[in-house]
Design a protein that fits this description.
By secondary structure, this protein is an alpha/beta fold. The protein has a single domain, classed as Rossmann fold, CATH 3.40.50. Helices cover 42% and strands 18% of the residues. Helix 1 crosses helix 5.
């Protein structure tokens, strides 16, 4: 079954790695990329609603917490699983992100293999059974 991921990422190298990892994983994932948080709301008017939203922890423009709050208050996106991928992850900031409504906060993987494994896990996860989890719980799932 094809799934649609919407990824907010401003780093072109990361975008290229994500595209390569998805192709390498041979999973039926259709991906749309946006550079800013606001792009999420513009994109959903022209593409299918995403099955998953992935947000870089440090996008230009709005803060991550502002972005999370807007997604969670949006009429059609408020229940869409929301994952944050960040290069830095202070525990207090992670806690605030979970409080704002994310489902999962992960450190951004660096290698193609790690990214491919990440997308495989994100593709197969049952978000209804695992609505909110830590990185440790996510990687411990038998997928």
């Amino acid at each position: 079954m094809e799934k649609h991921f919407l990824i907010a990422e401003d780093d072109e190298e990361d975008i290229d790695l994500y595209k390569e990892a998805i192709l390498a994983g041979a999973l039926p994932i259709k991906v749309n990329f946006v550079l800013y948080c606001d792009g999420i709301f513009k994109t959903i008017s022209v593409v299918p609603l995403p099955d998953l939203i992935i947000v870089d922890g440090n996008l230009p423009g709005k803060t991550l917490l502002e972005c999370i709050t807007e997604i969670r208050s949006h009429e059609t996106l408020h229940r869409t699983p929301l994952v944050v991928l960040s290069g830095s992850s202070p525990k207090t900031f992670q806690a605030k992100s979970y409080d704002a409504g994310i489902n999962l906060y992960l450190e951004k993987p660096n290698s193609l293999n790690e990214i491919s494994e990440l997308f495989k896990r994100l593709y197969y996860i049952d978000w209804s059974a695992n609505p909110k989890m830590s990185a440790e719980e996510f990687y411990a799932l038998n997928i």
